[in-house]
Write a structure and sequence with these properties.
The structure is a single chain. With 217 residues, this protein is of the alpha+beta class. It has two domains: 49 residues; 142 residues, Glutaredoxin, CATH 3.40.30.10. It has five helices and nine strands; from the N terminus they run αβββββαβαβαββα. The strands form two sheets. Strands 1, 2, 5, 6, 7, 8 and 9 form a seven-stranded mixed beta sheet that branches. It has a two-stranded antiparallel sheet with strand order 3-4.
Length: 217
Protein backbone atom coordinates (compact mmCIF):
# COMPACT_ATOMS: atom_id res chain seq x y z
CA UNK A 1 0.00 0.00 0.00
CA UNK A 2 1.39 3.39 -0.94
CA UNK A 3 1.41 6.38 1.40
CA UNK A 4 -1.42 7.90 -0.60
CA UNK A 5 -3.48 4.73 0.01
CA UNK A 6 -2.86 4.65 3.81
CA UNK A 7 -5.84 3.67 5.93
CA UNK A 8 -7.58 6.89 7.12
CA UNK A 9 -7.89 5.48 10.65
CA UNK A 10 -4.13 4.87 10.83
CA UNK A 11 -3.40 8.35 9.50
CA UNK A 12 -5.73 9.89 12.08
CA UNK A 13 -4.12 7.91 14.92
CA UNK A 14 -0.63 8.91 13.77
CA UNK A 15 -1.59 12.57 13.65
CA UNK A 16 -3.16 12.33 17.11
CA UNK A 17 -0.01 10.75 18.55
CA UNK A 18 2.08 13.51 16.99
CA UNK A 19 -0.18 16.17 18.47
CA UNK A 20 -0.04 14.58 21.94
CA UNK A 21 3.74 14.33 21.74
CA UNK A 22 3.92 18.00 20.80
CA UNK A 23 1.74 18.95 23.77
CA UNK A 24 3.93 16.92 26.14
CA UNK A 25 7.06 18.69 24.87
CA UNK A 26 5.33 22.05 25.31
CA UNK A 27 4.37 21.26 28.92
CA UNK A 28 7.94 20.14 29.68
CA UNK A 29 9.33 23.37 28.24
CA UNK A 30 6.87 25.47 30.21
CA UNK A 31 7.73 23.62 33.41
CA UNK A 32 11.45 24.04 32.86
CA UNK A 33 11.52 27.66 31.77
CA UNK A 34 8.35 29.09 33.29
CA UNK A 35 10.01 30.50 36.46
CA UNK A 36 12.84 32.05 34.47
CA UNK A 37 10.35 33.54 32.03
CA UNK A 38 8.55 35.09 34.99
CA UNK A 39 11.74 36.79 36.16
CA UNK A 40 12.37 38.02 32.62
CA UNK A 41 8.83 39.39 32.42
CA UNK A 42 9.24 41.18 35.75
CA UNK A 43 12.50 42.65 34.56
CA UNK A 44 11.02 43.92 31.31
CA UNK A 45 7.96 45.37 33.05
CA UNK A 46 10.06 46.98 35.77
CA UNK A 47 12.45 48.43 33.22
CA UNK A 48 9.58 49.99 31.24
CA UNK A 49 8.03 51.40 34.41
CA UNK A 50 11.36 52.76 35.58
CA UNK A 51 12.18 54.54 32.34
CA UNK A 52 15.05 52.30 31.25
CA UNK A 53 15.86 50.48 34.44
CA UNK A 54 13.62 49.19 37.27
CA UNK A 55 14.88 51.81 39.71
CA UNK A 56 11.44 52.83 40.98
CA UNK A 57 10.25 49.31 41.61
CA UNK A 58 11.39 46.24 43.54
CA UNK A 59 13.20 48.52 45.99
CA UNK A 60 13.18 48.00 49.76
CA UNK A 61 13.69 51.50 51.12
CA UNK A 62 12.71 50.82 54.73
CA UNK A 63 15.10 48.65 56.78
CA UNK A 64 13.43 45.79 58.60
CA UNK A 65 14.07 42.37 60.09
CA UNK A 66 11.85 39.74 58.49
CA UNK A 67 10.69 36.65 60.34
CA UNK A 68 11.50 33.40 58.54
CA UNK A 69 11.19 29.75 59.44
CA UNK A 70 14.52 28.14 60.17
CA UNK A 71 15.26 25.87 57.21
CA UNK A 72 18.11 24.39 55.24
CA UNK A 73 19.56 26.96 52.85
CA UNK A 74 19.46 26.11 49.14
CA UNK A 75 22.96 25.53 47.81
CA UNK A 76 24.01 27.41 44.69
CA UNK A 77 26.91 28.04 42.36
CA UNK A 78 27.69 31.68 41.55
CA UNK A 79 30.16 32.78 38.89
CA UNK A 80 31.89 35.87 40.23
CA UNK A 81 32.83 38.96 38.27
CA UNK A 82 36.41 37.64 38.32
CA UNK A 83 35.33 34.44 36.57
CA UNK A 84 35.69 32.23 39.65
CA UNK A 85 32.97 30.01 41.09
CA UNK A 86 31.69 30.17 44.65
CA UNK A 87 29.23 27.82 46.31
CA UNK A 88 27.35 28.13 49.55
CA UNK A 89 28.29 24.59 50.57
CA UNK A 90 32.02 25.36 50.56
CA UNK A 91 31.41 27.67 53.52
CA UNK A 92 29.85 25.12 55.86
CA UNK A 93 31.21 25.79 59.33
CA UNK A 94 31.03 29.56 58.86
CA UNK A 95 28.35 32.19 59.24
CA UNK A 96 27.40 33.24 55.71
CA UNK A 97 25.96 36.62 54.78
CA UNK A 98 24.23 36.68 51.36
CA UNK A 99 23.33 40.05 49.88
CA UNK A 100 21.04 40.46 46.85
CA UNK A 101 21.63 43.86 45.24
CA UNK A 102 21.77 45.85 41.99
CA UNK A 103 23.78 48.87 40.87
CA UNK A 104 20.64 50.92 40.10
CA UNK A 105 19.14 50.31 43.56
CA UNK A 106 19.47 53.46 45.70
CA UNK A 107 19.33 51.65 49.08
CA UNK A 108 21.98 49.22 47.75
CA UNK A 109 24.24 52.16 46.94
CA UNK A 110 23.50 53.63 50.36
CA UNK A 111 24.62 50.52 52.21
CA UNK A 112 27.63 49.68 50.02
CA UNK A 113 30.11 51.39 52.40
CA UNK A 114 28.51 49.52 55.31
CA UNK A 115 29.13 46.15 53.66
CA UNK A 116 32.74 47.07 52.94
CA UNK A 117 33.37 48.28 56.49
CA UNK A 118 31.87 45.21 58.17
CA UNK A 119 33.36 42.65 55.76
CA UNK A 120 36.81 44.23 56.14
CA UNK A 121 36.45 44.23 59.93
CA UNK A 122 35.45 40.54 59.89
CA UNK A 123 38.53 39.32 58.00
CA UNK A 124 39.94 36.38 59.94
CA UNK A 125 36.60 35.50 61.52
CA UNK A 126 34.52 32.44 60.58
CA UNK A 127 32.31 34.59 58.36
CA UNK A 128 31.81 34.57 54.58
CA UNK A 129 30.22 37.37 52.57
CA UNK A 130 28.65 36.71 49.15
CA UNK A 131 27.14 39.40 46.91
CA UNK A 132 24.56 38.45 44.27
CA UNK A 133 23.77 41.01 41.58
CA UNK A 134 20.28 40.74 40.07
CA UNK A 135 18.19 42.65 37.51
CA UNK A 136 21.23 44.60 36.32
CA UNK A 137 22.61 45.68 32.96
CA UNK A 138 25.74 43.88 31.70
CA UNK A 139 28.89 45.41 33.13
CA UNK A 140 27.17 47.83 35.50
CA UNK A 141 27.18 45.41 38.43
CA UNK A 142 30.86 44.63 37.95
CA UNK A 143 31.71 48.34 37.90
CA UNK A 144 29.61 49.03 40.99
CA UNK A 145 31.21 46.17 42.96
CA UNK A 146 34.69 47.36 42.02
CA UNK A 147 33.95 50.95 43.01
CA UNK A 148 32.44 49.78 46.29
CA UNK A 149 35.75 48.16 47.15
CA UNK A 150 34.24 44.85 48.26
CA UNK A 151 36.87 42.18 48.79
CA UNK A 152 34.40 39.31 48.99
CA UNK A 153 33.05 37.31 46.00
CA UNK A 154 30.29 38.99 44.02
CA UNK A 155 28.68 38.04 40.72
CA UNK A 156 25.51 38.34 38.70
CA UNK A 157 22.67 35.82 38.89
CA UNK A 158 22.58 35.32 35.14
CA UNK A 159 19.29 33.44 34.78
CA UNK A 160 17.59 34.42 38.04
CA UNK A 161 17.72 30.89 39.44
CA UNK A 162 19.28 31.84 42.79
CA UNK A 163 16.96 34.82 43.15
CA UNK A 164 13.93 32.58 42.59
CA UNK A 165 15.23 29.88 44.94
CA UNK A 166 15.59 32.38 47.78
CA UNK A 167 12.24 34.05 47.08
CA UNK A 168 13.69 37.52 46.66
CA UNK A 169 10.95 40.10 46.08
CA UNK A 170 12.89 43.37 46.29
CA UNK A 171 16.33 44.87 46.72
CA UNK A 172 18.33 44.90 48.79
CA UNK A 173 17.56 41.67 50.63
CA UNK A 174 19.99 39.92 52.93
CA UNK A 175 20.03 36.36 54.24
CA UNK A 176 22.03 34.93 57.13
CA UNK A 177 23.06 31.26 57.08
CA UNK A 178 24.41 29.61 60.21
CA UNK A 179 27.41 27.34 60.53
CA UNK A 180 25.33 24.26 59.70
CA UNK A 181 23.85 25.66 56.52
CA UNK A 182 20.50 26.78 57.94
CA UNK A 183 18.71 29.97 56.96
CA UNK A 184 18.07 31.75 60.24
CA UNK A 185 17.59 35.47 59.49
CA UNK A 186 16.46 37.79 56.72
CA UNK A 187 16.83 41.57 56.52
CA UNK A 188 15.39 43.88 53.87
CA UNK A 189 16.39 47.41 53.04
CA UNK A 190 19.66 49.18 53.82
CA UNK A 191 21.40 47.88 56.94
CA UNK A 192 23.67 49.78 59.34
CA UNK A 193 27.14 48.84 60.55
CA UNK A 194 25.85 48.32 64.09
CA UNK A 195 22.94 46.10 63.05
CA UNK A 196 24.96 43.95 60.66
CA UNK A 197 27.81 43.56 63.15
CA UNK A 198 25.37 42.69 65.93
CA UNK A 199 23.64 39.94 63.91
CA UNK A 200 26.90 38.32 62.84
CA UNK A 201 28.48 38.49 66.29
CA UNK A 202 25.36 36.94 67.82
CA UNK A 203 25.52 34.06 65.35
CA UNK A 204 29.23 33.54 65.98
CA UNK A 205 28.66 33.48 69.73
CA UNK A 206 25.76 31.00 69.51
CA UNK A 207 26.65 28.31 66.97
CA UNK A 208 23.99 25.66 66.30
CA UNK A 209 24.35 22.25 67.92
CA UNK A 210 22.62 20.07 65.31
CA UNK A 211 24.58 18.23 62.59
CA UNK A 212 25.54 20.16 59.47
CA UNK A 213 23.08 19.99 56.57
CA UNK A 214 22.63 21.84 53.34
CA UNK A 215 19.91 21.41 50.75
CA UNK A 216 21.45 20.78 47.36
CA UNK A 217 19.57 21.37 44.12
Amino acid sequence: MTSSEQDPAIATATASEGSASGRRKWFILVGAFGPLALVAALLVWGTIQGGGRPGGIFVNKTPSDVSINRSQAPDFVLTTFNGDSVTLSEHLGKVVFIDFWASWCAPCRQEAPVLKAVSDAMVGEDVAFIGIDVWDRPGEGRTFARRSGWNYPSGIDQNGAITIEYGVKGLPEKFFVDQNGNLVKKFIGPITVDRLTSIINEMLANPPAEPAALRRN
